[in-house]
Design a protein that fits this description.
This protein is α+β, with helices and mostly antiparallel strands. It is 41% helix and 11% strand. Strand 2 and strand 3 form a beta hairpin.
Length: 103
């Protein structure tokens, strides 16, 4: 039943509901960027967009920050950026019926 709900959220682009929102100090710690560097990259649209939490507070979706970090690492190695794989492509969901056993 749980997997059905996860698939539904992913299929309907509602997966953000399940992600954690982190504040600026945690973003700075994860990215090793200063406050001004984060805001400068946001202004150039080179960093994930912040989410308003109230009149004087903002946060970031943790999964977007993690994806940004991963893509930066891949860019340094000249590898194209990656997006999350569809659930059906994960090994957990692949059928093992067609695989021959050599035991």
């Amino acid at each position: 039943m749980f997997l059905y709900h996860v698939r539904y959220l992913i299929a309907n682009n509602l997966w953000r509901v399940m992600t954690r929102i982190i504040r600026l100090p945690m973003v700075m710690q994860k990215t090793s960027l200063s406050r001004s560097s984060i805001y400068a990259r946001m202004a150039k649209q080179e960093f994930p967009e912040a989410v308003a939490l109230g009149p004087n507070s903002i946060g970031w979706y943790e999964n977007e920050v993690e994806e940004w970090i991963t893509n930066r690492k891949l860019e340094k190695r000249n590898i194209r950026s990656v997006k999350a794989l569809p659930v059906e492509s994960l090994p957990l969901f692949k059928s093992t019926a067609n695989q021959s056993s050599e035991w």
